[in-house]
Design a protein that fits this description.
Helix content is 31%, strand content 23%. By secondary structure, the chain is an alpha/beta fold. The protein has an eight-stranded mixed β-sheet with strand order 7-6-5-3-2-1-19-20. Strand 16, helix 10 and strand 17 form a beta-alpha-beta unit. Bound molecules: zinc ion (2 copies).
């Protein structure tokens, strides 16, 4: 039988930019195409997407994109992939509705091809076929994917939890999972994000009493921030508002769009007469209104952050307001979130971010749920995804505890294929893969060098070295000079660096001075050495040769 390869292009050893290749012979598909957020060292970077080089190299084989659900860490890379390649995208109706909004803006309406699938459908992709299975998470129409290949089923759980009382009543298709387990799952790629949490995770419905308690106690306006895609959380908020006789206004473009789309398609049921326009808020007393807002991640341009600064034209925070922070900080955003919360408190708004009754629950499986998935699917090989190294490690420990032998458990890494053969599986040689950084201007492909330079300038400043050279004669045409901006060292250090620079330049012969790149390299080197000797600072040193 032909070899089958599973190649993660992201989402392993990290949380974010989920994207995995499944390849058999000349047929290649990917599961998800996500983005991740920059770490604190990636200055000026807005988002991070997978390196799609491998897909471009194999564009003749690349047949289809399958999406498990509409979260950004699973779909946010699409505009950057579709920029290079046009491949049909398979997803559920709900996922399609959400990604269409973004693709229309970023890619253009005629540049993508979405095909709808529903749980139970089987989509053939050459030698492979894909069957979505309904599994609960924190967004409607989330699917696990059974990818059938010559060796059996490769099962992608996608993001999941076992929610037995889902808000939309659509529970996980446990029966189908167990049938697939009986048919033969050769490899399980499981969510591992919450592997550190013992027991079973609470149902989405369990935030209802927490919200009711807030509504029962608050005398002023009630605001809630959550992810704009958390349709069920917003549904519950509107239900509770209606129960307490409050009208609901929605703030933030993405949230307004999502609620409009979901209401039109029937994914959200706004209680009659509950929703009002933001402009009409002033017509009602504070204890008769509630507000849903974006900004749960402290995004600088979001409505909530602008309100916290008193800079949002359409709505001002008032003393006596209550804000429910119904979300979880995505790692890296904590600082921005706390600053927002602090500013809200300064304006007299009470922020509820932690309470005895839950106001937020996770959409990811806890330990017992992860075990339940393994039990249902009975996989031969097992590999945790959607996790950082500690999550992968701890998940593997659980798999071993459940009796899986070491040689059937794999810790995957970006770009490294898991090769399935007739009688064995092994990790292979890495393909081209990694991260592509997209800066605040939307330019993809910011290099490591640019990042290092930004980091140096931000932390230690900038030193500009100017050397005037008469290139025809091969002599210095004047004295070299040094100028510093935001430099962390002392003026004395710059004096010494200038001495080093003079020495280095005087040591250059006629031929060497005619070679401007040599002059630049020696000038930068002399200045860097002098500065480092005086205390180890590493500013960005930019040499300039002025030719006469
Ligand atoms: Zn998700
Ligand atoms: Zn995810």
């Amino acid at each position: 039988m032909p070899q089958v390869q599973i190649i993660p292009l992201g989402g392993v050893g990290e949380i974010g930019k989920n994207c995995t290749v499944v390849q058999e012979g000349d047929d290649l598909l990917i599961v998800d195409c996500g983005l991740s957020f920059p770490n604190e060292e990636m200055l000026g970077i807005n988002i991070v997407v997978p390196d799609f080089t491998y897909l471009v190299q194999n564009k003749d084989k690349f047949k289809a994109i399958f999406l498990t659900h509409a979260h950004e860490d699973h779909v946010g890379g699409l505009p950057y992939l579709l920029d290079k390649l046009r491949v049909p995208i398979y997803c559920t109706e709900f996922t399609a509705a959400l990604i269409r909004q973004k693709l229309d803006e970023k890619v253009g309406r005629d540049k993508y091809d979405i095909r709808i699938y529903k749980p139970g459908d089987i989509v053939k992709v050459g030698a492979l076929s894909v069957e979505p299975v309904r599994i609960t998470h924190s967004i409607p129409e989330n699917c696990g994917l059974a990818v059938r290949c010559s060796h059996g089923i490769i099962f992608f759980t996608g993001d999941f939890k076992f929610d037995f009382t889902p808000v939309d009543g659509k529970a996980t298709d446990m029966a189908r999972l167990s049938e697939l387990g009986r048919e033969g799952v050769v490899a399980l790629l499981s969510d591992s994000t919450n592997v550190e949490r013992p027991g079973w995770g609470p149902s989405e419905r369990s935030v209802l009493p927490g919200m009711q308690a807030v509504f029962a106690a608050a005398e002023g306006r009630i605001l809630m921030t959550t992810f704009a895609s958390n349709i069920h959380r917003m549904q519950q908020f509107m239900d509770v508002a209606a129960e307490y006789g409050r009208k609901v206004a929605v703030v933030g473009r993405r949230m307004e769009q999502n609620i409009d789309t979901c209401e039109r398609l029937g994914y959200i049921n706004v209680p009659k007469g509950t929703r009002i326009k933001l402009e009409d808020l002033a017509l009602y007393p504070p204890n008769k209104v509630a507000i849903l807002t974006t900004g749960s991640q402290g995004e600088p341009m979001s409505a909530l952050v602008q309100m916290s600064r008193g800079e949002y034209g359409r709505l001002q925070i008032k003393a006596g307001d209550t804000l429910v922070y119904s979300a979880r900080p995505i790692p890296g955003n904590e600082g921005a979130i706390w600053r927002t919360i602090n500013r809200l408190f300064q304006q007299g708004c009470r922020v509820i971010y932690d309470s005895p009754m839950p106001i937020h629950v996770s959409g990811h499986a806890y330990q017992e749920e992860l075990k339940m998935m393994i039990n249902l699917l009975k996989p031969f090989y097992i590999a945790p995804v959607h996790g950082e190294p500690r999550h992968q490690y701890l998940y593997n420990h659980i798999a071993r505890e459940m009796g899986h032998p070491e040689h059937r458990i794999f810790t995957m890494a970006t770009g490294v294929p898991l090769n399935l053969d007739d009688t064995s599986a092994a990790l292979g040689t890495a393909v081209a893969a990694g991260s592509v950084l997209v800066d605040n201007a939307g330019t993809a492909g910011v290099s490591d060098e640019i990042l290092r330079d930004r980091y140096s300038v931000a932390n230690e400043g900038l030193v500009i070295v100017t050397v005037p050279v008469d290139v025809t004669k091969g002599v210095l045409a004047g004295d070299p000079s040094i100028m510093a901006k935001a430099f962390s060292g002392s003026p004395k250090t710059l004096d010494i660096a200038l001495d080093f620079l003079m020495d280095a330049m005087r040591n250059l012969g006629r031929e060497e001075l005619r070679d401007t790149s040599r002059v630049k390299a020696d000038a930068a080197d002399a200045v860097k050495r002098a500065i480092q000797r005086r205390g180890g600072a590493r500013p960005l040193v930019v040499p300039i040769v002025i030719e006469f």
